[in-house]
Amino acid sequence: MALNGLQLSRRRDVRKRWLLSAPALLIIFVAAIGPLFVMLAYSFMLKGDYGDVKFGIFSLDGWTSVLFQRDIFDDTLGLADAHLTILWRSVKLSLYTTVVTLILGFPTAYFISTRPPLSRDIWVFLVTIPFWTNLLIRTFAMQQVIRNEGIVNSVLTGLGIIDQPLQIMHTDTAILLGMVYVYLPLMVLPLYASMEKLDFRLIEAGYDLYASRLKVLWRIIIPLVKPGIIAGSILVFIPSLGAYVIPRILGGGKNMMLGNLIELQFGAGRNWPLGAAISIALMVLVMIALLFYVRNASRSGAGHG
Amino acid sequence: MPEKPDRNAIEVRNVSKLFGSGSAQFAALDRVSVNIRENEFFTLLGPSGCGKTTLLRLIAGFDYPTEGEIFLYGKDIAVLPPFNRPVNTVFQSYALFPHMTVAQNIGFGLEMLGKPKAEVAARVAQMLKLVRMEALAERRTSQISGGQQQRVALARALAPQPRVLLLDEPLSALDYKLRKEMQIELKTLQHETGITFIFVTHDQEEALTMSDRIAVMSAGRILQVGSPWDIYDKPAERFVADFIGESNFLKGTVSDIQAGTGQVRLSSGAVIRATLAEGFTPGGEATVIVRPEHARAVASGGQLSGTVETVVYFGTDTHIHIRLDGGELFTVRQQNARSRSCGFEVGDRAGIEIADDGAQVLRD
Fold it and tell me: CB 3.0 to 4.6 Å from A46: which of A57, A128, B119, B228, for a disulfide?
């Protein structure tokens, strides 16, 4: 079939665009997808004696030890309680973080989006300021606030409200506080982006039609900013699940999350196949969460179309 | 004209609304008082920024007055939140809920009032029929045309059977032909439902054709309240005369006042009899207005004389602009008859005959 000039030039255009994106695609393959395959391969190999893996020796040990452990004495398989505890803690704390940042972020975003345009920019700017500081430093700052001799405890004991300082450090609560603090902006910004587009006359229309403030919130505002709620939840949940620095510093050695477990296997644990298997399991968890959200998002998106 | 019951649905007393603070403070409403009768089609007419929408929002409850009181059937509602007022609004851009169907939109108010499901469904069906939208009940509001959205907005506001319906320039987003249709439809709907309508518009033609009474507003004040005839034929102030229809303004002195009329000696020396605006105070120079169709161009005679400057043909009528001997320009509108020119050409001398009762003396 003969192609006319227009079709030919359009074809050339498409090819040119591919060329333009080639550097980016190259980086994605070399730096992201490539290592992923390396990890996948490692997870199916036998562990080396001093770390690393024994190349070419296929083994499912890495994967079985994600959930199971071999008994030292009779060699039977039992559930790896420690791993399950860490998995459960990771999922639980990530869900808590998502819910708490949503509860704190929603009114914040609503407040910002109802300011006059000029001060709106200032508020958004203020929300993003923590990003300027390294995560490590922000986490240490949180440590200073909640440790036994920290600000919270000194004020509370100073005022005579409590006799003994509250033990917050090295608990799940400490990790939760740290993650809420660090990830809150990731919730506020997409929520704000959604609310900024909200037509506030719809809220007036709701009031006009006898809806109380709570009813307006449930029936009008929340359904309309649902895309922002979903985006914010994804942005908070995913990094929470893989958090490493925050549980390491605020949780201490006892309260590990998946990120710490992975680090342990590649470091002192000298079990690279297990580390690789947990990493991939974590990724699958994240993908399941994403799929769930995307399905929800497209359903609510259809509602607007 | 059907008999309107003589009872006030809304009483606005001395309401002021200030926005901003310090030197940037301004009064969107400045001590406004007005009574709106039950079952009346009442229009707030004025240019943008005159405070008409602010007044509507105060009645709806979206804003609260800085000063003054608003009564709904004798009950002070000025401080009630909007969801506690038996008043509903048709918004300028309709503000339909995009995440609900047409039927859900219409039923929303009843649902919020806690009406049983069956009652809501029955009322929604009734409203859909009233605005002829039965076929589109399950559509999303984004899937229907502007005119249909307008009808849904109307049905949604009427469904809870409000005591007073507020309409904030509801027709401004529609094209000309659809707007004309909706004007008639609105008027019919008001007649059928017997609900008091308060209608906000900047379109004088819309106001004249639809309203029982009109309040003309400017700069946060109500200048005049009256029937379309009162407003058009007996404007009280220059702003009103200028904003609604076309007018010729003349200067003169008033004497021999009796029964709302007076003898006016125009600056040209001619003397005419004119009605006086309410609140007119004699003394000094007064402004007299004559509508172009209340005057006639004549070959000789008449109270005024001048030279024809332009003749503009409009199909149904012709506008003849006459430069008066005193220097002012005077427009006469003459109805056209078939295959006959208006009888004047540019440069002709012409007299102007002002009909008895054709002139009005303004109060300012």
Answer: A57
